[in-house]
Amino acid sequence: MKDPFRRPSLGSGVFYRDPRAALDWLESAFGFERTMVISDKDGRLSHAEMRFGDGYIMLGGEWADFIASPASIGGRNTQAIHVHIENGLDAHCERARAAGAVILKEPADEFYGDRTYRARDPEGHIWTFGQTVRHVSREDAERVSGLMIDGWH
After folding, report:
1. CA 91, 92, 97, 99 torsion: positive or negative?
2. Distance between CA 21 and CA 23 in Å, rounded?
3. DSSP letters along 102-114, please?
4. Does 142 lie in the same domain as 104?
5. pLDDT tens, residue by residue, 13-52
6. What is the pTM of this model?
7. 40: domain range?
8. Distance of CA 90 to the CA centre of its chain
9. How far is residue 11's CA from residue 18's CA, in Å, rounded to a whole number?
C-alpha cells in the first residue's frame, strides 16, 4: 500500500492574494486535487497542499514581506511551474481556457518530443503543461533545434 503521508521529493510553493479562490480555480481549471487545507481561528487559509499526479504544490497567502503573488508585483514571475501530464493535453488546455486561464502559448509539438502549452492563472502565475508525444534522441534534438545539448533524458 502506498504511504498516504509520503511527499514527492520536490514540490513548489505558490502564493496568492486570495488563496481560497486559488484553491477552487486550480481544481476546476487544471485538475489539481486538494489534500490539505489549514485555516486559522478566523477562517483565513494558513496553508494548503494540492496534488497533481505524483507531484504537489503548497499554496498560501502573502504571509511575509518576501512572499507575493504576481498580482501584487506588476505581474512579474520569478518562476514558472511545469506540470507533466500523461495524456489529453489539448483537452486540458481547453478546460483551463474555459475556466478563465489566459493561454500564452497554444498547444504545440516541441523539438524535444513533448507537446506543451503555457497559461497564466487569474493572479498571474505562469504554468506550462507538457505531454510526451514522441521519444527524440539527443542527436535529433540538436539537429532540429540547432542547439548543443549536454546530457539528455
Report:
1. positive
2. 5
3. EEEEEEEE-TTSE
4. yes
5. 999 999 999 999 999 999 999 999 999 999 889 999 999 9
6. 0.88
7. 8-61
8. 16
9. 20
Grid coordinates 494548503 are at which residue? Answer: 48
Displacement of CA 147 from its chain's centroid (Å): 26
pLDDT of residue 50: 95
* Alpha-carbon radius of gyration of the chain: 17
Is the distance from CB of 129 to CB of 120 less than 8 angstroms?
no
> Which cell numbers hold the place of 112?
524535444
Q: Is 94 helix (H, G, I), strand (E, B) or coil?
A: helix
- Candidates 126, 119, 125; CA nearest to 92 is 119
Same domain, 56 and 84: no
Map grid coordinates 477562517 to a residue: 43
